[in-house]
Design brief:
206 residues, 16 strands, 2 helices, 43% strand, six-stranded antiparallel sheet, elongated, five-stranded mixed sheet, Tumour Suppressor Smad4, Ubiquitin-like (UB roll)
């Protein structure tokens, strides 16, 4: 029996309890049959676990129908059969009103114009990184995605987002940050050490 036929047989057999949907993740459509009792939140978790290879939090993503985000608390039974549901990354970027940059030395500065800003090491032209230390001396001691600078309210914070944060700690004024879920507050003049590289944060109110 062809794949198409098997899907249609299952769809008919499970019509009372399951809903046929098309999930688009990472640009690829996937036809699925899902329990009508599933919430949008549970569906998002399943989709992220199955189709997203990179590391990240579930809250970094949302499910969208006709360009409108779905409420996490609702059940998928509120959707129509064969609805196209897209997995999209939440745009959490924040414009920076202050003049903010990280300095390596007097001649090397990394301006920050939006947050969150990812600090790491990768090839030139990698747009996922806000601050690419690849070409600095000892740049290879830094993880590809090592730290994330962001803001909570008026407070700037930094998180360790390395794949193995315990093995790749960062130091904020020599205080260790070795867990992604423990953000550290930073301010003007804070020294941030990743691998063998030390960067200084500069924040000037405009």
């Amino acid at each position: 029996m062809a794949m198409q036929d098997r899907y249609n047989v299952l769809r008919e057999k499970l019509a009372a309890t399951h809903l046929p949907l098309t999930i688009e993740a990472q640009g690829e459509p996937h036809r699925v049959l899902l329990s009508k009792n599933l919430t949008i939140r549970e569906l998002r978790e399943e989709v992220v676990n199955k189709f997203v290879q990179e590391s990240g939090k579930k809250s970094d993503f949302m499910l969208v129908v006709n360009q409108k985000p779905l409420a996490l608390s609702k059940r998928i039974s509120t959707l129509g059969a064969d609805t196209l549901v897209r997995l999209e990354r939440v745009d959490k970027t924040q414009k920076v009103e202050e003049q903010v940059f990280l300095s390596f030395d007097e001649n090397t500065r990394f301006p920050i114009i939006k947050l969150p800003a990812i600090i790491g090491r990768s090839k030139q032209g990698d747009t996922a990184l806000s601050i690419n230390v690849n070409d600095l001396p000892d740049g290879l001691t830094v993880s590809r995605r090592h730290a994330e600078l962001s803001r909570q309210g008026e407070t700037f914070i930094i998180r360790n987002i390395a794949d193995n944060p315990q093995d790749k700690p960062i130091f904020v004024n020599e205080a260790i940050v070795a867990a992604a879920d423990v953000p550290k507050e930073v301010e003007d003049g804070t020294e941030i050490r990743l691998g063998k590289i030390t960067l200084t944060l500069h924040i000037t109110k405009t």
